[in-house]
Structures are given as C-alpha cells and as structure tokens.
C-alpha cells in the first residue's frame, strides 16, 4: 500500500511505543496514513537515535520492547493507519553490548560472525577506543586484567569496558592470567589477541574494518552475504509478513557493497506490497537506477527543488557580494570544495584511501602495468576528488553502462583540469573499475570497485555537508543535505521540470522538508530564503548588530575571534532559529534558546575544521566565539536583543509565507508528503541533536481542536496553526483522491501581469478530478512586514491563463470553502487570500 502521507516519529529521548500509540487519534485527525518510525531495534545504552544497533532481532526494551510495539501496532491497525520502519542494513554498533561484535573480539576469525562484519582479516582487528596508545594507557595503569562482571572470564579492562580474551590465551591458566599485574606480561597477552587496542586518533589511518562515514563506533555489515542478510533481517521480515509493518525505509543504501542486489533481495523477501524507499542523496540531474524495485528515495532532492521556488535569483548575487565583502575577497567555491575534499582524502579517510591504493598497486603489479605507487596515488586521489555524486553502481562483475558513461565524463574532466595527473594512470584506474583486467587480478579489481564506490559517498558527504557547508555561509538555507555546493542559478521553470520528472520516475517517493538529518528545520530554512529577497536590508542589520557587540571580539594568537565571517554565520543562524513569538524581555525563553544555540555554535566551528575541529580542538578560539554568542543572548543585552527582534520581523513574516508555500507544494506535488514530528506547526530547529527534540504534542493536539481558526489572524500564523490546518485540509483531500496525487498529471501554469513573478501555480489532473494550486513567492517587499496587506494589493493586475482541460468549470477553494466558476483564466483579484489557494474542481460525484 502506497501511503498518502507519513508522519516521522523519533523514538527514544522520552518517546516510547505507548506514547506513540496515544498519538494515533491525533495523527488520524491530521490526515496521516502511515506512522514512519525511526529505528526501533535494540541499540547501545542511552542511544538518542537508534542507528547504533546492537541486536537487529530484538525490539529495544528501552522504548517498550516487543509488547509495547505490539500495542502500538494494534492501535495503528484499529485506526486504519499503517507503519513504516527505518532499518539499518549498512552497519551495527562496535559496542561490547553487541553480542555478535563481542564474539568477534573474543574469537577473531574463528567467530561465526567474523564474516558478518566488513573486516580486513589480513591483520588483527583494530579497536580504536583508547584515549591514547595501548603502551601509554598501560603505563599509566588504565589497562589491567580483570574478570568480566558479566561473564566472569578474564578480560582486558579499560575503565568500564571489558575486552574479552580469546580462550586460547587463558584456558587452563585462568587464575594465573587474572593475577597478572606485570605490564610486560599484560602487553604480551595483548599481543596474543586477535585484536589490537589502540588510540581513537589512529582510526583514520589504521582501521581494519569499514566504518560508517567517520564513525568508528559503527562497523559496516556484509549484507551481500546471504547468511548475513538472513541473520540481520529475521525480525524485520517477520514484522512485515505478520502485517504489523507495511513499509521499510533503508538507511544509507549507498554504503552497501551492492545496493541493487540488496533491494532486489529485500523486495523478494518482503513481498510486492511492502512500500520500500531508500535514503539516497541525488545530485542535480541524477536519478535512481530504473531497475531498482522500490518506490524511490526519502526526499532530500525534493528539499533542493524547493529552493528553485523560494530563492530570489535576481538578487542573490547582491547577497553574495555582501558576503564576499565580509570575507574580504570573492569566494572561489570550486576551490573551497576541492580543499574540503583534499582534507577528507588526505586526513579523515586516509586509511580507506590507502587500502584502495594498495589494491590498485597490486593489480598493476599482477598485470605488469608500468606505473609506480606515487603515480597511481596521484591519479586515484584526483579521481575521488572529482566525483560529483555519491557513487556508481558497479558490482563484482563490472560496471553498468550508466556508471561507465559517468566515469568517462569524470575522467575527461580530470584530464582537462589544472590538476591533471598522469593520463596513463587514469586510464589504468578506468580499466580496473570496468573490470578490464587479467583473470588473475579479477577478484582484486572487484574488491577495488566495491571499496571505491563505498568511499565516494562518505567522501562527498563529509566534504560537502559536514565541512564545506560549515565553512561557506553566504546563505545558510542553501547549505542543506542534498543541495549542490557550487554557485548556480535558481529557476521556477527548472522546478516544474523536476516535478514532471519526479512524477515520471518516482511518483511514490517520500517528499521531505525536515528530517532528523537536515541542517535546520523547514521553517528556519524558509525564513532564511528571504535574505535573498532583501540583501541590502540584511546587510544593514548585520552591520548594525555586529557593531553593537563589537566589544566582545577578542584578539588571539591565531587571529580575531570571532572573525567577520564567523559573526555572519552567527547572526544568520540566530535569525533562522529565533522562535516566531519570542520577545526580547522573555528571559526564560532567551535562556532556553541560548542553550540550544551554543551547542550548535560549537558543532559548527568544529565541523568547519578551520581553526578548530573534533580531532584537535582550539579551546581559546572556541571559548572566544562561544562567549560572543553568550553575549548575543544575554538577557541583559537588551539594546541588541530589542534591535535584533525588531529587525527580524519582516524576515519572520515573509518566512512564514514561504513556510506555507513550501508546505502546500509538498502536499500537492508528485511524491508522498512526510511530516517530520512537530513540523505540522513550526520547526525552527538547528542541526542535530537539536532537530531531534521531542515536540509538545499536547499543544499540537489542542491547536488542531480549533476547527475554524482565522487564517488572516497574525497570531495563528506565528503559532503555526495556519500551517497545521492547511496540512489537515489537504491531507483529507489526498485520502479522498489518492490517484489524483499519485498518478495525476502535473501541469505547470504561468501567471501574467504585474505580480507574475510572485506566484507559483500548477495543477494536478486525473480524469475528471483536478486541483489548481496557487501559492505566493518572493513577497518580502509586498508584505511590508505583516499579514494585514489586502489581497487586492498583492495580486493586482495579475491573472493565470487556464488550458482547456481546466477552464470553464466550477471549483471550490478547499481552504476557504468558497466556490468559484472559472472561465479561461483566473483573475487573482478574485482570490480571497494573500496566502495559498487550492481550487478543487467540483464534480457531480463530489459532496
């Protein structure tokens, strides 16, 4: 069953199955068809997200266990709602709580789970969980031999962690081993283990297992192996076959060795009715492979498409110029992207790169290719850096035609660049990726192809989303998961083309605007888009605010803190997160915001990896910037807070119009709209963990109880009630007319006249059903800072010509209830709102 609308719930952090079950009546009233659950399987103790799974075949007791899950599933079924589970096939936790991982530590290659995890068994298993080298922590007395409190067996004890000893190293002499105190003897015992304890700092260089991105606490799984697939999907498939679960969301599908084979097997095992989507970042113009038997992605490309509608392309260059003046010079974004990727290849993913390089060198030697290691290294480095998308989809057998075409394009680009390496080395790597090697080197080439594809994704994600997007802050709304990092134009026509393509290629994909991984909540992003409409006003505000807090700037050995570009980021981030109703004299509210904001600032500075980072923090710099941020939000700093709040008002108002427009588009454009928890009202969250906070569900339910809110009242916009009610109205229509939204044609419409550029309009049409969508855009200058503007002023001398299949019918505005007879055009003066309008054709069969 294809959902008509999903509602994402983040379990843990206080959210349990019983709490979710209690929300079912609310979700049903809101118009949701499926609850969309974050991972529910047993994870590490205290996990806040559930992606660090320790037991894939147990439902986590901390959120209610199997009994609680069954109660929730029963409540959903009784209400007619479905359930979608977020599952994690790519990795599990490297935690001693993980029985499989613990068994591998204890028994090494002899463990029945040794091949479940993606481990390089040509060397000892590396465990990079010490604060310093093994020798250093042994010398300091932090490593000792003790009996494991859980098993009673001898273990290497490091604080609260007890690493089991392989039986061969202690059996028949248990008491002697337990009494070991001599450091040399403990070191010798450690050398006899199938693992090697080491410092966490050595992980980027020496790791012997594939990790998830840079997270050494998560180890890759080999689900391409049938036994591993069966062991990790036993409970998942049981829940699907029992009817308790209707759909599956696949986390980080690009991390798998063979995503196509995985989704094919999952489809075969789960059955044709299971709704399956994959978390996959698509670049502009990139599409999912057509032969994957799934409904589509989880929607990051949809977020990117919305920027085409809400960014003012005519004025964004002015905002960019202002930003460059703060930086002190024009920013070469391509050079910045290259620098970020170089950092990742040379430092953060040094071990993964070295493993790839060694495979390539071995193939060259086996096939008699006259290339030395430095030459191959340079070519491999440039090829990885030039990769524009997450990955290709080659298998052990070779590279599909689409992958070959992309690779050829990238290689040509590298050869023509100023950083071009030896062309013969590039050609050699191309042959390896195509599988054009000797029979003796075929297996090694297959492993190289797999490892290459499993590295390009993390390299792209960490370079762009988790480095560049924290370094270059011209427009924070554009620094979003799935967005393009390079400068480009924004086009309403491109949006319409992308939606037509979406209808053609993945009409049942999820359409997201906020997720647990987005850099900021949808309404913060919608507000920050408006900076592109008023760059001069933003410049004036920024300059004034910066001057007001100038006394808090300090001078350090490595430069000013915060620098101008730091303050640009701080004020823009604060502008996005500032609650719509927060007043400067609300000391409790200001302090609550300060706590969230400071956590974001620390993360932003470290992710940028310029003057500080997670590996080596620069405390003086961090403290200086954090002190500046504290001063910004000091309740005693009233002159600034009053000015900031007042200056922000026009951006707040225009941002709320943007919020409603992007919501209406999500609800009516091709795809399955997802409502991220709490985002049916307003979501001004920052990057995780801020975006995973528990919403005030009681307040949301009370707000929905008001059946007829005043859509023109400012307080209802500021509270999010207008947005919530629009969602409830449209989701009700989606349930009544599912095929209109799932398969109905997408017809771009064009406005003409004075305000033609300030409206986006399109229609969905299927047989006799039709819906005309009209929503405002780029209205910052028209609103004059409030919602009191008469609609006649906004829409004066503006009309929408209608094609024959839409003209000369009676329509009902599903928001206002007003009926209108349309001729061959819509005069927007006849529309009763300066917000969105949704005109449903009235048929004889409709009530």
UniProtKB/TrEMBL annotation:
MF terms per GO, please? (1,4)-alpha-D-glucan 1-alpha-D-glucosylmutase activity
Matching InterPro entries: GH, GH13_cat_dom, Maltooligo_trehalose_synth_4, Trehalose_TreY
Residue ranges constituting the Glycosyl hydrolase family 13 catalytic domain according to the UniProt record: 11-415
Q: Which SUPFAM superfamilies match?
A: (Trans)glycosidases
Question: Which keywords does this chain's UniProt record carry?
Answer: Isomerase
Q: Which residues cross the membrane?
A: none
> Is Isomerase a UniProt keyword of this protein?
yes
The enzyme's E.C. designation: 5.4.99.15
Keyword presence, Isomerase: yes
| Enzyme class, UniProt record, top EC level | isomerase
The record's section on Pfam families has: Alpha-amylase (PF00128)
- In Swiss-Prot or TrEMBL terms, this protein is called Malto-oligosyltrehalose synthase
Which species is listed as the source?
Atlantibacter subterraneus
């Amino acid at each position: 069953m294809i959902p008509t609308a999903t509602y994402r719930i983040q379990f843990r952090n206080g959210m349990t199955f019983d709490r979710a079950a209690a929300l079912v009546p609310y979700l049903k009233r809101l118009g949701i068809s499926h609850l969309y659950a974050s991972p529910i399987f047993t994870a590490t103790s205290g996990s806040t997200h559930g992606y660090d799974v320790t037991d894939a075949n147990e439902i986590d007791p901390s959120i209610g266990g199997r009994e609680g899950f069954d109660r929730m599933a029963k409540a959903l079924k009784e209400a007619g709602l479905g359930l979608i589970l977020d599952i994690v096939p790519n990795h599990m936790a490297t935690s001693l709580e993980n029985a499989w991982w613990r068994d591998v530590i204890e028994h090494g290659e002899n463990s029945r789970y040794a091949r479940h995890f993606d481990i390089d068994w040509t060397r000892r298993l590396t465990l990079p969980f010490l604060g310093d080298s093994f020798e250093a922590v042994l010398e300091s007395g932090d490593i000792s031999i003790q009996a494991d409190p859980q098993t009673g067996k001898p273990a290497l004890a490091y604080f609260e962690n007890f690493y089991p000893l392989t039986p061969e190293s202690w059996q028949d002499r248990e008491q002697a081993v337990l009494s070991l105190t001599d450091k040399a003897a403990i070191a010798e015992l450690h050398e006899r283990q199938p693992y090697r304890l080491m410092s966490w700092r050595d992980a980027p260089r020496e790791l012997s297992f594939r990790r998830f991105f840079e997270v050494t606490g998560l180890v890759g799984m080999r689900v391409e192996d049938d036994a591993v697939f069966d062991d990790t999907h036993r409970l998942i498939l049981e829940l699907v076959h029992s009817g308790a679960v209707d759909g599956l969301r696949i986390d980080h599908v690009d991390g798998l060795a063979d995503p196509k084979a995985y989704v094919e097997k999952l489809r075969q095992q789960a059955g044709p009715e299971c709704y399956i989507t994959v978390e996959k970042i698509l670049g502009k113009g990139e599409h999912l492979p057509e032969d994957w038997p799934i409904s589509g992605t989880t929607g990051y490309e949809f977020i990117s498409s919305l920027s085409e509608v809400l960014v003012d392309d005519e004025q964004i260059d002015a905002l960019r110029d202002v930003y460059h003046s703060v930086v002190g010079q024009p920013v070469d974004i391509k050079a910045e992207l290259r620098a970020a990727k170089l950092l990742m290849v040379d430092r953060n993913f040094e071990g993964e790169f070295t493993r790839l390089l060694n495979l390539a060198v071995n193939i060259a030697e086996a096939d008699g290719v006259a290339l030395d290691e430095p030459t191959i290294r340079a070519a491999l480095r440039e090829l990885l850096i030039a990769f524009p998308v997450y990955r290709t989809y080659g298998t052990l057998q070779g590279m599909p035609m689409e992958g070959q075409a992309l690779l050829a394009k990238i290689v040509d680009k590298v050869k023509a660049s100023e950083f071009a390496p030896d062309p013969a080395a590039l050609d050699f790597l191309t042959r390896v990726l195509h599988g054009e090697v000797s029979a003796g080197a075929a297996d090694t080439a297959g492993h190289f192809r797999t490892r290459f594809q499993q590295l390009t994704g993390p390299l792209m994600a960490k370079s762009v989303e988790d480095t560049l997007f924290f370094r270059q802050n011209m427009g924070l709304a554009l620094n979003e998961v799935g967005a393009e990092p390079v400068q480009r134009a924004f086009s309403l026509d491109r949006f319409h083309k992308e939606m037509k393509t979406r209808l053609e290629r993945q009409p049942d994909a999820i359409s997201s605007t906020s997720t647990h991984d987005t850099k900021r909540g949808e309404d913060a992003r919608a507000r920050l888009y408006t900076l592109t409409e008023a760059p001069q006003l933003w410049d004036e505000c920024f300059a004034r605010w910066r001057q007001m807090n100038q006394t808090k700037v300090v001078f350090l050995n490595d430069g000013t803190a915060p620098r101008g570009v730091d303050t640009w980021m701080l004020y823009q981030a604060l502008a996005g997160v500032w609650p719509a109703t927060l007043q400067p004299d609300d000391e409790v509210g200001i302090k609550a915001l300060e706590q969230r904001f400071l956590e974001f600032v620390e993360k932003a500075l470290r992710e940028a990896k310029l003057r500080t980072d997670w590996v080596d923090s620069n405390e003086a710099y961090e403290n200086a910037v954090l002190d500046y941020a504290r001063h910004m939000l000091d309740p005693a700093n009233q002159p600034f807070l009053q000015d900031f709040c007042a200056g922000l008002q026009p951006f707040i108002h225009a941002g709320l119009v943007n919020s409603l427009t992007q919501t209406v588009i999500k609800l009516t454009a091709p795809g399955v709209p997802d409502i991220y928890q709490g985002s049916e009202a307003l979501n001004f969250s920052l990057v995780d963990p801020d975006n995973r906070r528990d919403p005030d569900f009681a307040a949301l339910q009370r707000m929905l109880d008001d059946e007829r809110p005043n859509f023109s009242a400012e307080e209802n916009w500021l509270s999010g009630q207008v947005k919530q009610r629009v969602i409830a109205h449209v989701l009700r229509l989606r349930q009544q007319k599912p095929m209109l939204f799932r398969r109905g044609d997408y017809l771009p419409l064009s406005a003409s006249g004075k305000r033609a550029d300030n409206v986006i309009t399109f229609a969905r049409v299927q047989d006799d059903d039709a819906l005309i969508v009209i929503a405002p855009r780029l209205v910052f200058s028209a609103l004059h800072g409030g919602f009191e503007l008469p609609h006649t002023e906004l829409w004066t001398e503006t009309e929408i010509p209608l094609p024959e299949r839409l003209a000369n019918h009676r329509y009902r505005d599903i928001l206002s209830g007003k009926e209108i007879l349309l001729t061959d055009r819509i005069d927007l003066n006849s529309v009763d709102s300066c917000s969105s309008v949704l005109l449903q054709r009235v048929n004889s069969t409709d009530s």
